[in-house]
From TrEMBL:
GO molecular function: acyltransferase activity
Residue ranges annotated for the N-acetyltransferase domain, each copy included: 1-153
InterPro entries in the cross-refs: Acetyltransf_17 (IPR041380), Acetyltransferase_Eis (IPR051554), Acyl_CoA_acyltransferase (IPR016181), Eis_dom (IPR025559), GNAT_dom (IPR000182), NAcTrfase_Eis (IPR022902), SCP2_sterol-bd_dom_sf (IPR036527)
EC number: 2.3.1.-
Biological source species: Streptomyces litmocidini
Listed name of the protein: GNAT family N-acetyltransferase
Protein keywords: Acyltransferase, Transferase
Length: 411
């Protein structure tokens, strides 16, 4: 199986091959590309799998993103996308060959991590990816959407109900592209699990709303000085359901102010927040707790460690301690035992021959890496082995993040 890199001249064939693999048709000719999800493809990061006669039978690509780690650390990552094999050539090792080639290339670029959004949950674990973030949908009937007054004393309690000194302005999507770009970039730098949206994504209108050109209203929140610090992009359907595609807020008070705005929209029967982080306080702020119906709880970003010591020392930490991790990487045929030592928020990670505290697959290390899943959960699930009675609890304390990881960027 020959794997070769793609170039800009391959864009049309790449897009057609990729769509054929998924049984779809391109929304617009490959030469145009503006306003569709694949228009931001970086063809120098693409791969073709070629049949013996030279025809492309598989595609894979990656975007150049920054990922925010716990501790507000930004690292470059490859965002894997456009992975597909023609139906006529599946189950012949094509996918495995492309994934191995791609991981080798990403390592050569110096990336510590690779990330993706999985079309099917059973595909990418065997290549070392683990689900690291999750997201939920919150549905609130308009007639039961009142927010409760704060029960916490003092100014902090008032802020929690959205009683800030800011303002909300309604704009059309076409009027506020620069504002959205700036606010999102500010937000993603402090949100673990968030990915950058490079300027070309906004310029090409690539992805899903509010990046895409689909008609949307945008509620823009400004602070007391008039600086934009949050937005909610939404549309009202024929069934009078107001759907919020994306809520971006630089703090909880801004999120609450935006939620209060959309929940108070007239002539609406239901408000749907499509992507809410697990454990978000909005449901608890409703006067009627049962009014907030949680649904579509699903995985978000999948993470794959390419350099275990490098990735572990890159992120911030919020407890001191040490663990010996015995990590297997079956797909790449690698194995390492690492002593992780954390002091004052920073980690050292070195090879060791000490007995392990935890034995785990690299995919499970990817799942716990951002702090969204406790290692003890995977111990209880039978995927991670704890060699000492206190090992899982120590791992939980170490890997815990300061905020739940969440990824809103779709690619």
């Amino acid at each position: 199986m020959e794997i070769r890199p793609t170039t800009d001249q391959d864009r049309g064939v790449f897009v057609d091959t990729m769509h054929t693999a998924f049984g779809l048709f391109p929304e617009t000719p490959a030469e145009d590309g503006g306003g569709v999800w694949w228009s931001a493809l970086e063809m120098e990061r693409g791969l073709f799998a070629l049949a013996p006669d030279g025809r492309p039978v598989g595609t894979a690509a990656s975007y150049s993103f920054e990922l925010t780690l716990p501790g507000d650390v930004l690292v470059p990552v490859g965002g894997v996308t456009a992975v597909g094999v023609l139906p006529s050539h599946r189950r012949r090792g094509v996918l495995g060959a492309m994934m191995r080639h791609q991981l080798t290339e990403l390592r050569a670029r110096g990336d510590l991590l690779s990330v993706l959004l999985a079309s099917e949950a059973t595909i990418y674990g065997r290549f070392g990816y683990g689900p690291a973030t999750s997201t939920q949908q919150l549905t609130v009937p308009r007639g039961r959407a009142a927010l409760a007054p704060s029960r916490a004393p003092g100014a902090a309690g008032a802020a929690a109900t959205g009683a800030d000194a800011g303002s909300v302005e309604v704009l059309r999507r076409a009027e506020c592209g620069d504002v959205l770009e700036a606010v999102y970039d500010r937000y993603r730098r402090t949100q673990p699990g968030a990915l950058s949206r490079p300027p070309r994504w906004w310029a090409l209108r690539a992805g899903r709303p509010p990046v895409a050109p689909a008609p949307r209203y945008v509620a823009v929140h400004r602070d007391a000085d008039g600086t934009p610090d949050g937005y909610a992009g939404y549309a009202v359907g024929e069934d009078r359901t107001l759907t919020v595609d994306e809520t971006i807020a630089c703090d909880d008070a801004v999120f609450t102010a935006l939620a209060r705005f959309v929940l108070g929209h007239d002539l609406v029967g239901t408000v749907v927040f499509k992507h809410v982080p697990p454990g978000h306080p909005l449901r608890w702020q409703l006067a009627d707790f049962r009014a907030g119906e949680v649904g579509k709880d699903t995985d978000g970003l999948w993470v794959r460690l390419l350099d275990v010591p490098g990735a572990l020392t890159a992120r911030g930490w919020f407890a001191d301690g040490e663990l010996v991790l015995d990590v297997q990487d079956p797909f790449l045929g690698e194995h390492g035992r690492h002593l992780l030592t954390v002091r004052d928020g920073r980690a050292a990670c070195v090879p060791t021959d000490r007995e392990p505290d935890l034995s785990l697959d690299v995919r499970d290390l990817g799942t716990v890496y951002l702090g969204g899943t406790a290692p003890s959960t995977l111990v209880r699930a039978g995927h991670v082995r704890a060699h000492r009675p206190d090992a899982a609890a120590r791992a939980d304390a170490l890997f815990r993040g300061e905020r739940s990881p969440h990824c809103l960027h779709w690619f």
